[in-house]
Amino acid sequence: MAQPAPAITVAMSVYNGAAHLAPAIESVLAQTFADFEFLLLDDGSTDATRTIAESFAARDPRIRVISRPNRGLVFSLNQLFAEARAPIVARFDADDVCHPERLARQHAFLMAHADHGLVGADTRYIYAGGKPAPKAPINRPRDHDGIVRNLEDGPNLCHSVIMVRRELVLAAGGYRSAYTHAEDQDLWLRLSRKTRLHNLPECLLDYRITPGQVSSRHIITQARHAAIAWLAHRAVIEHGTDPTAGLAALPATNALDALLGPGSAAYVRRRIVARALYAPGALANEGWDALLGHIADAGPSAELWRVAARMLRAGRLLQAARTALQLARHAA
């Protein structure tokens, strides 16, 4: 006889996450809310991820390990939502730690607020070794109206601590591969048009700071895709259609005006530069075209001269000189 569906599916995709996987799993198993299944997808790891996951699964029947060749995070997230048995899915990353009341608090909120489809929470920063990091907490908006007002600029919701009604994500088409590294922001924008969003004031997760995080390694792509997601969101609100729907990949920045309207390329370049002001290495490499284009769009400013100075201090002598030359050229 088939077992009844659990109340919650905890959904985790892992790629080479062995270093922090055990404490992450233990934090889920220590939840005060016990009616859950734990889907742990090993996305083709080459380290001990699968061994660790299967050792826990052998001890707790709530854990189900899915192991397959690497397909990337977006594909993995969509597979997790497709295979989830519960009506509510709690996202969780393999290098973070859930507080014991996390599932209970968020589930109680959704049960008490039928008009809300997604709930997040506050987080605490920890170092790779687990010690608290003296980083100022993010002042996230709490209620739906505040989150919607902040959707363009963020931060709004921490992906690793959201709990969402599964049917809403499936109805929205899931995560979109075109928006890689900003797939969560794109989803929040689409869900905000269909349901109400909320952030609990409680700190329910320890967010681990590691050098290889997406927000560090892919800052330019993340900023570019988040900016395009915002423009697509505005297009739906204003015209009823999403020009990026169905795209396997987003077009080059210079082609965005044709897709999303005049000024779109300049907007995206501005957002990239604003996000990477203190990442001179990123602006000097994959963000280089966006930086030069933004200078041409907006002209020189004190902040952009400081970007050139940061490049110089970082040893990017040629890029610093070319940035200064571009700024001087457009100062006339």
Structure description:
The chain has 332 residues and is of the alpha/beta class. It folds into two domains: 8-215, Spore Coat Polysaccharide Biosynthesis Protein SpsA, Chain A (Alpha-Beta Complex); 218-329, no CATH class. Helices cover 45% and strands 16% of the residues. The protein has 15 helices and eight strands. It has helices at residues 18-29, 49-57, 73-83, 102-112, 144-149, 166-171, 183-192, 214-217, 219-239, 256-260, 264-275, 280-284, 288-298, 302-313, 317-329, and strands spanning 8-14, 36-43, 63-68, 88-91, 97-98, 116-126, 163-165, 196-208. It has an eight-stranded mixed β-sheet, sandwiched between helices. Helix 2 links the parallel strand 2 and strand 3. Helix 11 (264-275) packs across helix 13 (288-298), helix 13 runs parallel beside helix 15 (317-329) and helix 14 runs antiparallel to helix 15. The chain is globular and about 75 Å long. The termini are far apart. The model has no long low-confidence stretch (mean pLDDT 95).
Keyword list:
332 residues; alpha/beta; Spore Coat Polysaccharide Biosynthesis Protein SpsA, Chain A; 2 domains; 8-stranded mixed beta sheet; 15 helices; 8 strands
Q: Please trace the helix and strand order, writing H or E for each element.
A: EHEHEHEEHEHEHHEHHHHHHHH
Global shape: globular
Secondary structure category: alpha/beta
Indicate the radius of gyration in whole angstroms: 21 Å
By CATH, the superfamily of the largest domain comes out as: Spore Coat Polysaccharide Biosynthesis Protein SpsA, Chain A
Strand content: 15-25%
Mean of residue pLDDT values: 95
